[in-house]
Each structure stands twice: as C-alpha cells, then as structure tokens.
Amino acid sequence: MFAIVPLITRTDVTCVSFINDHILAGIGGNVSIFDEHLELTKTVIVFKGQQIFGIVPNGSQTKSLIYGENQLKVLNNLDGYNQIAFIAFNEWILSAKWINLNQNIATVSMHNNVTLWTSDLKVIQTIACAERCILYSAHLVNDTWEDLIALSGTVFSQILLWCPSKGANFSSVLARLSGHKGVIFAIDYNESTGVICSTSDDRSARLWIPKCKNLTSELKLEKPEFLLKCTMFCHTARVFRCLVLDDCILTTGEDSLLVVWSLDGDIIRKIETHQGASVWSLAYNRRKNVVMTGGGDCGITLFPLQQNIVQEEVAVTNSELLKKTGILSNGNIVCTSEKGALLLYDIKKRHWFEIQKHEDLASYSLLEVSKCRNLLALAGYCGSIHVYKLDLHLVHICTHVVSSKSRIFALHWLSSEQFLTCEAEGRLQVWSIIEKDISPKSQFILPLSKERWTTSSCICNHGHIAVGDRKGNIYIFVSGNLTPLQIIKKAHNYQGVTNLYFKENVLVSLGRNSTVKCYQFYKTTFSTLSLDKLPFSWITSIYEDNNNQYLLGFLGNEFVVWDYKKRRTLFQFHCGGGHRSWDFYKIDDNITFAFIKERRVNLIQFNSNVLNIKDLVNGFHFNEINGAACFPVVGLKKTVLISGGEDTTLRVSIIDYEEQPKFTTKSVFKSHLSSIRTIIGCKLKSELECEEYLVFSAGGRAQIILWNLEIVTRGEEVVPVFSEKYSYYEQLNDESETRIMDLCTIVVNACVILIAATSNGTLKIFWVVKDAGDYKIELIGDVLYKLKCILKLKNLTIHDHHVVLSTSTDGNIVFWDFTSLVNELLNNCTKDVKSIHIIKSIHSHASGINSLDYKILDNNQCLVLTGGDDNTINVALVSFDLRNAKLTIEVLSTFTDSESHCAQVTGAFLNDDHFVTSSIDQKLNISKWKVENNRFICQYKQTHTCNIADIQGMQIWKHFNILYAIVYGKGIELYQISETER
Amino acid sequence: MGKSSKDKRDIYYRKAKEQGWRARSAFKLLQIDLQFNIFKDVTKVVDLCAAPGSWSQVLSQKLYVNDTDTKDNVKIVAVDLQPMAPLPGVIQIQGDITKSTTIDVILSHFNGIKADLVICDGAPDVIGLHSMDIYIQTQLVISALNIACNVLKVGGHFVAKIYRGKSTHTITKQLLKFFKEVTIAKPMSSRNSSIEAFVVCLDYSPTGFDAPSINSFFTEDTVNIVPFVACGEENAFDSDTTYPLQLEGEDKYEYKEPVQGPIAPPYYFADHIK
Ligand SMILES: C[S@@+](CC[C@H](N)C(=O)[O-])C[C@H]1O[C@@H](n2cnc3c(N)ncnc32)[C@H](O)[C@@H]1O
C-alpha cells in the first residue's frame, strides 16, 4: 500500500468564516484554521475532493456545520475540530442554518428543497417548493422550523419566498421578487433593517424591503408586498456574493472588486481584492471591524471596513487665499498665501500663525519641504529663495536672491543639505546649506526645449544628478559639466516626469503616463531595467514606511494610495485631481493628507490601520496553471517551483516540507504576451550552495522565453535568483496564433538544443547560443509532422542515438531521430533539420495524448507511458535495435487501462517500480509494475482524490528518498507518497 | 487582435461560417452521426438547448429529404432558454428544460406519438467553479434524460453533451439503466483541451421502474465502464491545430461574418467554457 499525504493545497477559497477567535477557510475539501494571531494552526481534511461552500457555527459556537456539494459534516469546535457526524446526501446544498436552539439543522438544495435534520445529520423530512426548478443561491431566515423562510434564487432571474413548514410535501411560493435579468447568485437578509439584497448575472445588486419592514410579518399577510428599494450598478461582471450589514451592503464577484454601499445604494468604497480573479467567499466580523474575502487566486484577504476618515477644511482667520502647502515633521501644516505670507497651522493647538510676510512671494511662490521635513524652502518670481528650519519653532535661516533675478521655475530637495533650482533658459543650480547660509555649487544647463524647466531631481551615485523635465526626458549631469552626460529621451510621455528616486543602485522615474521605470547604471550610462504599468495615470511619488511601499497618485479627481508590492489600491479620496498643491505624511499611526482646494487647505486624517490590508493567504495564479517545473534544493528539504498558466504570469515559489509544510511565492513575472503552456529546466551547474539552471517557458503567440535560475542557499535559507535572458517570438506579417504546447532539450557537451512542439503540427528546432556571457535562442528550422497539434515531448538517448518522442491529437506516439543534427552541431558543421526523420509511430489512443513518460529498461527496452483524452492509460513496451547502424523500434507488447479514469488523463509518471497517473477526474492513481515475459504487469492500484479541479499536469520528484508529487490545474496540491507494508 | 484571429485559432469556427452553420457545434453532431448513424429512419426529434440552432439546421437537412411522404412525418422540436432565430420546419419553444412546465409544453407537441431521437447540447453559463459548473451541466443532461424517458420510443436514441469530471462515471452508470449501449464520443471538432464530450445512448429499453435520479455525485467505488470513441471523417480537421488561413486547394480566404449572431445580449447565456 501507499500512504499519500497531502502537504499543501492551494486552490479556490470557496468559503471563509469567523468562529470564536479563529478564522476557518474552506480550500478544496479542507478547512484551514487560523488562530487569533492569524497563524495557520491546523488543516482539517473534511471532504474528499468536494469543495466546501459553507462553514456555519451553531449559536454557542461549539460546533460547526461544514457543507460542500452533497456532503455535510458537523465538527466539534472545542476539541480541535473532530468529526461529530457526516453524511453524503443526494442533493447539492446551497445554504444551511442551525435552528430550534441548535437542536436541528435546515438546508436548502439546488433543487429547491428544504431538508430538516437532527443535529447529528439524520434526515427528519424534506419539503419541496411547489416551484420545481434549479437554484443558484438560497438563504434561510429565522431560528425555528415553524418560522423558517427560504429565499430561493432561480436561473430565471427571480427570488422565490416560501415557508417550508407550511405545506405537507409541497410548499407554495408566497412571494416573488422579480426584476433581475439573469441568474441570481446570492441573497442575504438583515433582520434589524429588513433589507434583502440579491445579486445577479446582470451585474447588478438589488435591495428589496418588505412593505411592513419585517419579512416574517409581511409573509403572514394575504398579499405580501415588497418594494425594490434600489438597483445598484458598479460591478463590471457578474456579482457572486453579498452581505447586508446594519449600516452598509457589501457586494463582490467576478470582477474581483469588493464594493461597499450605503443602505441607499450609494457607493462608499471600492476595493480590489484578488488580482482580477473572482471572489468566491465573503465574511464580516463586527467586533474586529474586519471584512474577509476568499478568491479564485487561492488567496484570503482581510481589511478594515470602517475607515473613520476625518475631513476638515481649516479656515485661515483673515481668510487669506492659499497657494501651496506642505507638512512638517511635527505634523504642522505650512502654506504660502496669495499675498506672500508664510502661514503655519498648529495641528495640536488648532490655530494659524503667520510666520513671515514675503512681499516677493506675492502671487507666485514655490514651497518645498525637504525629505526630512525639517527644512522648508520658498522661492519667488524674481529669484528670491528663503530657507526655514524646524527646531522647536520654525525659524528663518537665510534669504538669497539669484544674480539673474530670474523667476525660480522649480526647486527640488536633493538631500537635507542640498537642493536644486531651475531658472530661466534652463539654468540649473545646486545649493548647499552651510551653517546659516546657502552657497551655490554645481551648475548645469538644460538643453533647449519648449518648456525648459525641471519637474524633479535626485542624486545618484558617482556624483551624478538626475533631472526630469516637463517634456518627459531625463538628463544625467555630473558636477563640472554644464551639459548633460546622458539624455534619456521620452522616458515618459509629453506630460512629463513627475518624480525621480535613486535606491540600491537603481534610478526610478515616475510619470503621468501610468508608468514607473527603473534604470541601472552600467559602465558609463543608465539603461532601462524595467517598466511597470499601473492602473492610474498620474503617479506622483513613492512613500515608504516600515516594509511597505506605497505609490501616491491621482486617478481622475481621486487621490490614490496604492500598495506597490501587493499591487492594489488601499485608499482613494475625492480631492479634485492632481493639479493642486498637496502633501502626505504619516506620524505614528496617524496619516495626514493635506491639499489646497479653492484656495483653502483641506486636511484628511485617518488611522494607518486603513492601509492595513492583510493577506492571510497570499494570492497565487488566478487562472488554470498549465505548466510547472520543480527544482529540488540540494541538501535542504525545499523545492523551487516555477509555474505558469492562463493568467500569463510566471511565478517563482518555494515549497518547504521541512516540518510544517509552507508555500511561498517569491516573485511574479509578466513577460509573456499570452498564456504559458509549458516550463522546463535544464541544469547548467551544481556547486555547493549554488545551482544554476536554464529555464524555458513557452505558450501562446509562439513565444519562448529563456531564463536563468540560480538557487543560492545560505544556511537554511534559499534564495532563487531568476532573470529573463531572451525572449523569442516571431513577429510574422500578422499576429501569430500558433501555440507552443511543450518543450524539451537535448544537452550534449554544453551544447543545448531546444525543441518546441507547436499547435500547427511542426517541431521547431532551436539552438541555445552563448553570446558574450548571455544566452539567446536561434532557430535552426522547422520539421512538419502533419496538420495535427503536437501536445507532448520527451527525449531519450539509446545506442548513442538521440531520440525525441512526440504525441499529438491523432493519438500517435512518434519517435524522431535527432542523432545527425546533434552530431553536426557538435562538429560545427552546417546545421539543418533535413536529417531529422521519424523512426516509428505507434497509434496508442483514440484521440489526443496529454501526458507522456518513459523508462529505459535493461537490454535496450523501454516502457512508454501515455495518458489520453480518451480517459485511457497506455503502456507500450518497445525495444530499440541497431541494424546496419540504423535505429529501429519494435513494439513488444501494450497494456491498456480504460477503467481507472473517467476523464482526460493529463499526468503520467513512471519510475523503477511505480507508475502514477492523474486526470481531470481529480484522481491520482498509483500502481506498482513489473515486466514479465515482455509484458507489462500492473500490480495493485491505489487512488487518491485530489482537491484540484481541471488538473493539467503533474510533476514527481524524489528528494531525501521520499517521493513528492504536485498536481496543477485550478490551483496546486503537493503530496508526499510513501510505500507502506502490504 | 484582428477579427480574423479567431478564424486562425479555430478552423471549425471558420468552416461553420463558410458553410452556413449558425455555430461550429453543427460539425460535432455531423461527426457523431458519421460514427453512429443516429439519423437512420428518424423522423421525430427533440433538440434540447438548441440555440443558436446549428443542430436544428443539421436535423432539417437530414430529415427533410425530398420524399413528400416522410416530409409530412417529420417533426423537429427545438427548446432553449434563449430566443432563437426561426428556422423553417422547426417548432421552437423558449424555456428552461429543467422546469416541469417546459417539459409539459414539449410533451404537448408529441400527443400520443413518440420521438425517435432526443439530442441535447446543453451548456450552462459557467461561473468558473468546476464542481458547480459540471454539476449544473449534469442537471441539464438529467433533465434531458427525463424528457427522453417521456417521449422516446423503445429503441430510440439519446445524445447529450457532458462535461467530464470526477463524477462522470455516476452519470454513465445511470444511462446504462435506460439504454442498451452507451458510449462516450468525442467528435474531432471538439477540442482535446476541452472537458466536453458526448454520451451516445443507443436503443432505449426502459425497465419500467426506474425514473432518472438527480443524484449525480462522485462515489468512490465505481470505475469507468463505458467505451470511448473519437469520431470524424478520416481527414477531418483537428480543432486544436492552428491552420494557415489559406488552405491548399481552397478558394482564396476571405473573412466572413457569423451566420446568425445571438439574439439575446451575449453575457446572459454565453457559453464560456473553453
Ligand atoms: C452550446 S449551446 C447549444 C448550441 C446548439 N446545439 C447549436 O448547435 O446551435 C448551449 C445552449 O444551452 C442552453 N441552455 C443552458 N441551460 C439551459 C436550460 N436550463 N434550459 C434550456 N436551455 C439551456 C443555452 O441557452 C445555450 O444556447
């Protein structure tokens, strides 16, 4: 027998629930339990492959009812969630509730039946609604069987209200809520307000109220009436879930947005949750003020609901009109006024002070606070510069007038000692603050241009200063040279560079064209390292705090705080747009956003908790995973996993199976233009504490990307260093719709041949060329098989011959001879693909072959294991012979199993004595095998039901003598497989 | 992306437009017929989940042969949730096949007479949770089976689309109670990468007692016992292959508009499954 122990499950989070101080999450058929510190403490395997859709505690929270598909289970919350009762029912459960003082349970099924159960899951009775139809959603109201009301959401856009206790076997519909134009996906009801919310396929959520404001009393009337209170549109796709709270409504769904609405149907807030994936589950805890969502990206997110934002307009006593504003390190606000006054608003005393009047700053002034927020520079139209310093009070340090008397177009703090000014004709001047004065340092000249002034500046290393201009260019100056050393033309679009930073040897520029760019200094110049597009156009600054990196910017009239790491909006506020003076600052737990609107200063203050959106489980791929490659780490019980799929992202994760299994995604790459279908690795070198691989990923638009993976270990820590080296894709006359389905490599003496299987029935043959320390892929040629999509590839070496195995939609396994090509390459002869030919073709499946593995035996025999679209597993025993130096292949016997799987077989693995297959039917089958008298014999079989739907493939590896397997598809699951005594 | 990009990715989509079919599904039915000869001696058919109507097109082409005698005998009843553009000789019903009222309307067209064939190409608007999508699709199959049990003559045939998944064998096991021969068929026009397949059930032979059960859940004890057949012409196109737009020996490629676009707003009942 085998022991198959699942270690890690990451898939759709279909249910989340707060119970006592714990959080329970339904992930596949498992419940993950998190304690009050949000640590994962336990995973309970509740069902075998059935997805959990409900976790319902009883009134005293001592028991939990878990349901999923047709299964129900009651767990004891008090003794570590052990099972009290279980049943596999014959209907799909949509909703459940504890009733009759926790003595009973009531459920609604997809067939519009309500069942009454004992608390240990014995059926008492089932009542059918008179309206026989399929439901997509249901909700139960009231706590006793007598009063129980079912709200049933139909395919045909109605909500049916009925009371199961009224009626013998069939219970009639008492009221209907009609108005939606599509399937009803969710229904919720709030007892205290009487509000019913329904959500639908038609992108809307609707609020309904019983005429008498109480559902139970209304349904007792002869003609119950319901009013459609409002129809709420905001979601851009189907709305899957809703909650009616006492003072607001939450809706979420396919567009990944969580929308908070007022009870009148006004939008209060929109929150992006799961990388664009559907949100499947939603819960709220009032005491903690926390909303929790579970999504199609396998993640769970927590965030505070109430933001408690305080907004005030602080009027100046003599009603002066304000122009510019900034926040000092002590939280006080400074402003310049139309009349040239420098004003200070003391936050604690809530009082305005006039610090100084500068006649020269009337009607035009610049106000810039230094990075340390202890220095303040003002500048005017006729070349004056004033510097102030915050000690106990804000004190004037010095005033200086530039010799040209030119207007100061811009002033940028470079550090707490230096700033740069921009005068007319592009004259730039760096200033140093020395004691109580400022002294001019380096000078530069901006090249001629229409709008010849700067928008930002920062100091880089090697004495370089980077300057951004109004036209989107970046200039690199060095002290002593008036003219720029380098011009990065059109770094951003015509709307200009908004900000520049230099950190860890990288220059970062922000623009008003939604982009963040990074440049690396190499030898003498900066060259582009990366370009990142954000979902809002006007990006103004980066705000760093503890471990967080926020991007600040504007989206239309809204000010946005965006989490750079998690890539989502944390805070959004209507302020009128980016064309205004504003500042943003956090002291302790308080965040202040100050801005000028209609010549007055407005303050927005809130607790930094508002930005505290936490991922209880980090998101992963938000669509099917098509390909994965595993790289077990030498000497540590860890594996680096590289995965890719329909969401076009490539992710590098670390699987840790030391003790408590852990799964952490380290980085996400978005280089692929279309879906990724396959990922393979090939080892370059393996040294102590560092292994190096070439990794290839390929998929849609016939794109192949070559990456370099270095796995560096430092003690127990594993650092995967992953970088893109080369992207191959044919820019044909038109966009190519060819997909690369699979890849394999032949490696001989450091010469790497890459073979790609394509959807147009050809093998593309490449050569990986090392070019000045870098790698690239060069096409050698195409070999046409036939107009049949090729699905899988593997290669083997036998009798000194290089053989490639391919499978395709015609059900054939084809053996190709690559020997001559390899020899030509090794001998530096002209290379062409003409020598590649088919040695043998074996028809082994009725249609496509989706999985392939082989095992070379003694005496030049080989087992070829395939799994097909025809639900069948096939094993061919073939023998390879050399006749007149020509390789021939003969099939000795075949073994077929069409009983073990009832859907496509998409994973196959064969080793010395086992073989493993996985399928879309969610089964993982393991058998022992042997060959006797040239026949393949399968000895015994064991089945495990996986939690992953739509399994696309499987990877198995041996590490520390233990077999590990992952299956991937809609998520990923890791198992440890060991053989136990029979 | 250009408008011809779907033509490039999907040969059957393109061929359907060129040959005047309302949907590429037509080829699936034609290829199933090629293998199983399901239209032999057939005059009365129920086409469930029929919109936009390519299967009904195939039916009228196959059933209305030039012989007036048989012509008068022909009856094609097409049912769908969605409205469907009219087709001559096809009776259309708009309704949900899982609802008893719809079943009554269908039966009213078969007053006393029996159908020779019931076909169902039902696909729900998938939501993206495989377990639920497959279950709901299976409910369409069970509703279709239920209708078949009501209208089918003894010896009649039943063909229905299924989504293969963890509980497929539970369905095939149930079908075997009503039909002598059950096969899982995969037409060449159905993608290798799709979970879609068809159950072809021949020779209706009810035992009298059993009514179809709604229970279609996964059970651990069962194994797959029905055969699998891939069907299509010897040289049929492969739906996973990317063909060049200009195929050898064909007229010059030209982009064509779809034959009959959907009548209802596309997002209501669109078939999202890949
Ligand atoms: C793949 S299409 C059928 C295509 C059709 N055979 C043809 O050849 O044109 C699936 C159809 O199932 C229909 N459908 C889904 N659920 C249904 C239900 N409960 N009752 C009736 N039709 C349904 C959808 O409206 C959709 O038109």
From TrEMBL, chain A:
Family matches, as InterPro entries: tRNA_Anticodon_Mtase-Reg, WD40/YVTN_repeat-like_dom_sf, WD40_repeat_dom_sf, WD40_rpt
SMART domains found in the cross-reference section: WD40
Placement of WD repeats on the sequence: 177-208
Annotated keywords: Cytoplasm, Repeat, tRNA processing, WD repeat
Recorded superkingdom: Eukaryota
GO biological process: tRNA methylation
Database matches in PROSITE patterns: WD_REPEATS_2 (PS50082), WD_REPEATS_REGION (PS50294)
Signal peptide as annotated in the record: none
GO CC annotation, single: cytoplasm
Principal location listed in the UniProt entry: cytoplasm
Any Pfam family hit: WD40
Places the protein is found: Cytoplasm
SUPFAM superfamilies referenced in this protein's UniProt entry, alphabetically: WD40 repeat-like
Similarity comment text for this entry: Belongs to the WD repeat WDR6 family.
PANTHER family: WD REPEAT PROTEIN, WD REPEAT-CONTAINING PROTEIN 6
UniProt protein name: tRNA (34-2'-O)-methyltransferase regulator WDR6
Native source organism of the sequence: Aquatica leii
TrEMBL record, chain B:
Top EC class for this record: transferase
Principal cellular location given in the protein's record: cytoplasm
Signal peptide, first to last residue: none
Pfam families documented for this protein: FtsJ
BP GO terms, sorted: cytoplasmic translation; tRNA nucleoside ribose methylation
Source domain of life: Eukaryota
Keywords assigned: Cytoplasm, Methyltransferase, S-adenosyl-L-methionine, Transferase, tRNA processing
GO molecular function per UniProt: tRNA (guanosine(34)-2'-O)-methyltransferase activity
InterPro entries: RNA_methyltr_E_TRM7, RNA_methyltr_RlmE, RNA_MeTrfase_FtsJ_dom, rRNA-MeTfrase_E, SAM-dependent_MTases_sf
Compartmental location: Cytoplasm; Nucleus
Residues noted as binding S-adenosyl-L-methionine in the record, renumbered to the chain: G53, W55, D80, D96, D121
Active site: residue positions: K161
Catalyzed reaction equations: cytidine(32)/guanosine(34) in tRNA + 2 S-adenosyl-L-methionine = 2'-O-methylcytidine(32)/2'-O-methylguanosine(34) in tRNA + 2 S-adenosyl-L-homocysteine + 2 H(+)
Keyword check for S-adenosyl-L-methionine: yes
A cellular component term, taken from the record's GO annotations: nucleus
Its EC number(s): 2.1.1.205
Annotated Ribosomal RNA methyltransferase FtsJ domain residues: 21-204
Biological role stated in the UniProt entry: Methylates the 2'-O-ribose of nucleotides at positions 32 and 34 of the tRNA anticodon loop of substrate tRNAs.
Recorded family membership: Belongs to the class I-like SAM-binding methyltransferase superfamily. RNA methyltransferase RlmE family. TRM7 subfamily.
Protein name: Putative tRNA (cytidine(32)/guanosine(34)-2'-O)-methyltransferase
